[in-house]
Structures are given as structure tokens and as C-alpha cells.
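Class, carefully examine what follows:
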Amino acid sequence: MISDHLVDLSRLQFAVTALYHFLFVPLTLGMVWLLVIMEVVYVMTGKLVWKDMTRFWGKLFGINFALGVTTGITMEFQFGTNWAYYSHYVGDIFGAPLAIEGLMAFFLESTFIGLFFFGWDRLSKTQHLLVTTLMAVGTNLSALWILIANGWMQNPVGAEFSWQTMRMEMTDFWSVVFNPDAQAKFVHTVSAGYVTGAMFVLSISAWYLLRGRDVEFAKRSFRVAAAFGLASVCSVIVLGDESGYTVGEAQQTKMAAIEAMWETEPAPAGLKLVAGINEAAQKNDWEIEIPYLMGLIGTRSTSKTIPGIHEIKQKNRERIVNGIQAVIALETLRAHHDDVAARVTLDRFQADLGFGLLLKKYVADVRQATPEMIDKAVDDTVPHVTPMFWAFRLMVGFGFAMLVLFALAFWSTLKGQCGKQRWLLRAALLMLPIPWLSCELGWFVAEYGRQPWTIYGVLPTHLSVSTLSVESLYGSLAGFVGFYTVLLVVEMYLMVKFARLGPGSLGTGRYQNEPVHAAHAPAHA
């Protein structure tokens, strides 16, 4: 049996690299469409300030894109190095969207990003706009295929297990592509990226306005970011509702943990705003909730119930008991391929095979599983409730705070007050890290909430890891953390450097880089 320490270290390493990588991804997803908007205005009006905006913000986008690619490629290699059995077990399905992402999306965005930077003097305005648009499409296609792969991990459709090969095999490619969980995750994630890009431009533009420099450039950038950010944050909230519905359909355990719902409540269930969670007693000591709201979000009805953790555990116990029969039948078939009785048993209980495999964490031969081991396996099927509950609420709270900020910023532009309300500019500057925190919290809820599974209900995490030494994992973890931290420091240094230089760094001679002293600052700054 694989040691818990090895599994925990493997999970920690992948989590660290994924969270580092996702510091770069949202900004890439969001800024690329802001570049498209700015260049569209340039092509339509011919005003050079819009070309300068596209080039300046494109420079910051390029820095972020380069470092995001570096961290992403490194992360993907871990499927082979740290999660070898996972790659063997589900590689036929999981590998397909990743391969398409590389062949279709990554090459598309990588090719056109070069033309974006070096084609200004070689392409016509319309041709360059087409390049920028295709770069944006490629970036979002890349996210689509990666999230299709991740969505299948959350809701494994269009595939079945083959006992002859001991692998999951794809049966319906289009079911994988149009997996409701994957589609909801895609639109929710890219919308969060759009919010991140908008906040980045809004915050830096606010900094320019506070310092009274590059005012007309900053005002235009502020207006674009405010409008784009407001539309995007509204999309995040609306599509977050859709994502909650798909979770309620496919991952009821995750839903129950997010809501700290220990008991099944009469339909429609209420939405808990805050609660005093007592995991030891498996109950909430107190809670404040909005009646009916959770039932409407999770089931889109007033009559369907959302099962609580205790009910889910009872169902999972039955599945584990059935899964024992499936594991025994599978092992018999592996030894005697023509055993008809074993084949019949496996066909009958195959849907619960993954639950039987949960016991492999505690005993090599599931026939020897004790009631205590089954109890532990049942407990494993539910992630810790406290981090899930509060991480989700922090994410949602940040989302509504950004909604207020973008609404106020957009309103200020409509009223002709852009740059005059210094308190709003300071708020925009202070809110700069919030979308990144929200994105990281969202991924934590999605991935931690899937435990104890790498493939939900199919393959337990403890069976997915490679056979590695703990020492090698400590070494590689330290190496990754060190390398990624250097990349993050480099990114922050370059971003701050070029943001401070401002549009004057373009060398057009149209901008004054030095800040205006407060006494001489324009009144409207």
C-alpha cells in the first residue's frame, strides 16, 4: 500500500504548482480581450492613443503570458512523474483534450502572439486586429480544452472501465466535450479571468490618475476596464449560479460540504450565510441562513431535496460494500479470464468499483476489510467541511465587493467624474489582488472538494500516485517552490517596472513619464 505521506506530498506538490500557475492564467485570459477592444477602437477611429493603449497593455500581457507558459508546461509533466497510475488508468480520456489543446490552441496563441508584438509595422491595421483577435481566441480555446479535461475529472461521462486493460476507455467523445460540468466550469473560469484583467487595468490606471500623470491615456483605460469589468463580474455571478447547479447534480458531496449541510433539509433548503461548524460532532452549533435559496440554486426547483452529509455517508457505505464485491470479482477475472460468475458480479457492481477501491488505503485484500476500515473509508468520502465552507464564502464575498467597485467605477465614467473621486481611485488600487485571491479560492473549492477522488467516484487519489521516494518528493517540491517563486518575483519586478514607466516607455514621444507634482496636478486628475 502507498503511504499517506507519499500521497500527501504528491498532492501538495501538484497543488503548489497549480496555484502558482493560476496566478498567471486569469490575467492572460482577461487582458487579451481588453487588447482586442482597444485595438478595435483604434481601427475604427484611427486615434493613436488607442494604438498606444493596445501596445502598452500588450507589453504587460506579454510578460505575464511568457511566465504562465513556463509554469504550465512544467506542471503537465507531473502527470507522468508523480501520477503515473492516474495517467495509465485514464490517459485515453484525459490525454485527448490536453493533446487537442496543445495542437489547436497553444500553437495558435503562441504563433499569433509573436505576430502581435512584431507585426505593428508589417501588417495593416485590419490585419493586425485579426492577429490580436486570433490570439485571444487561441488563449480561450486553450482554457476550454484544459477545463474539458478537468470537468471530466469532476464528472466522468462518456467513458467506461475495461477489466481487460485495467483502464478507463472513451465511449463518447462528444459527451466528454459537452460535459455540463466542463462547460459550466469553462464559462465561469474565463469570466473570472476577464474580471482579473479588468481589475489589473483599472487599478494601474487609477494609480496614474492619483499621481496626475498620463491622464488622458489613463482615463480611457479606466473607462474600458470599468465597463468590461462590470459586464464580466456580472457574468461570473450569473455563471457561478450555473456552476452551483451542475455541482448539485454531479457532486452532491461537494455541495453538502460547501453548505455545511449535515442533515437533509426539507425542500427547498436554505442558504447558510455563516455557521459555527463543529466537525467533531458533525453538526453546526449555530447558523444564519436565507430560507429556500440553496434549494433554488442547487436543484432549480422547490420540491427536490439536497442530501445532507449524513445521508450521503449512508449511501456511500452501501456503495463501498457493493464495491467490495466488484473488487473481488475484478481480481478473480484478472486471474481467470473465463470466470462467468465473476463477470456477472462485476457487471452488476461495476458502478461502485471506485468505492470498493477506497478500502485499498487500509487493506491490500478487501476481503479482510473490517467494519472499522469501512467506517474510515466512509469518512474519507467527505472532505473537511470547515475549509470548504469558508473558502467558498470568501470567494463569493470578494465577488460582490468587485461588483460594487466596478459598478461605481462605471457610474463615475457615465457621469463624467472619471478620475475626480480620489477615494474611488484608492479603492480600485487597493482591490488589485482581490481577483487573484478569488480565483485561487475557487480552484481550492473545486479541487479539494473532489477528494478523496482524482476521478470523481472512479479512481481514489491514494491509488493514483507514482511509486516515488519521499526524499525525491521533498527535493522536487523544494525545487518547484524555489523556481516558481523566482518566476513570480521576476514577473512582479517587470510588471512594476513597466507600469511605473507607463506609456512613455513606448518611445512615441507622446507621453510624459515623470509624475506631476500635486501642486501642479490637473484639477480633473
